[in-house]
Amino acid sequence: MTDEVEVVVAHAERTTVRVGDVFVKIDGDADRLAREARSMAAAPVPTADVLWQQEHVLALAALPGAALGRLGAPSTASAAAWTAAGAMVRRLHGTPPPPWPGRVPDRHRAELAEACAWIVANGVLTERIVDRNRQVAEAAFRPFAPAFTHGDLQLDHVFVAGDEVVGVLDWSEAGRGDPVFDLAVLTLGHEERLDEVLAGYGAEVDVAVIRGWWSLRCLTSMRWLIEHGFDPATPGGEVDVLLARM
């Protein structure tokens, strides 16, 4: 019997397919893919096993367990699992960061202005909603000590079994970055789980900065999502996150 090829994600920059228990990532940026493999090797948290690597291609073994949750859907993971996810992020942030930069706030500031103009001009959201969230997003632009960050710690990139984190996927954006950004992406659309994550993280975090990153993330991703066939207005998704700040 031949295993079917499942397209996990596909766009102009990267494509991931699954065949049986093997995931194959194809990245147009060979350097980024090499950094991803190096990040996985250096991270003090469980990651997928690298089966083989070539220029532009990385093969990974499937992780056990199940995703912590999905954006736009209630998470069935336990409170203890969310707390364990917070502790996992703290271990990552406590490790010396790699030499290459991750997400840069100055770049986000320029992206924010352009994104807000596009959203209003195309009638995606009202100017009132955009202006309010742009004000909230300003909290993310503040001095911080760079840490080893995952850079795209969506909750479906964190796999748990019972109350334990058993693996973290997709390290393509890993690098030196704002540690609060990881916490914000992990809890995006699941504000009710924030206290559990912060309990596991165990360090003081300004919640206003997390909310700032929620608004910033949603505003700057809106155009990409729409142009690539995703619906940010899906219940519990990016539009609902922005409306929650009103």
Which terms would index this structure?
Aminoglycoside 3'-phosphotransferase, Chain: A, domain 2, Phosphotransferase family enzyme, Aminoglycoside_PTrfase, three-stranded antiparallel sheet, transferase activity, 10 strands, 246 residues, 41% helix, alpha+beta
Give the gist of this structure.
The chain is of the alpha+beta class and 246 residues long. Helices cover 41% and strands 18% of the residues.
Give a topology summary.
Layout: E1 5-10, E2 14-19, E3 22-27, H1 30-42, E4 50-54, E5 57-61, E6 66-67, H2 79-93, H3 105-121, H4 127-137, E7 147-149, E8 158-161, E9 164-168, E10 175-177, H5 179-187, H6 194-201, H7 207-227, H8 238-243
Antiparallel strand pairs: 1-2, 2-3, 3-5, 4-5, 6-8, 7-10, 8-9
Can you walk me through this structure?
This is Phosphotransferase family enzyme. It is a single chain. The protein is α+β, with helices and mostly antiparallel strands and about 250 residues long. The chain has a single domain (about 65-245), classed as Aminoglycoside 3'-phosphotransferase, Chain: A, domain 2. The chain contains eight helices and ten strands. The strands form three sheets. A five-stranded antiparallel beta sheet has the order 1-2-3-5-4. Strands 6-8-9 form a three-stranded antiparallel beta sheet, with helices on one face. The protein has a two-stranded antiparallel ribbon with strand order 7-10. Strand 8 (about 160) and strand 9 form a beta hairpin. Helix 2 crosses helix 6, helix 3 (about 105-120) packs antiparallel against helix 4 (about 125-135) and helix 3 packs across helix 7. The protein is globular, with a radius of gyration of 18 Å. About 35% of the residues are buried. The model has no long low-confidence stretch (mean pLDDT about 95).
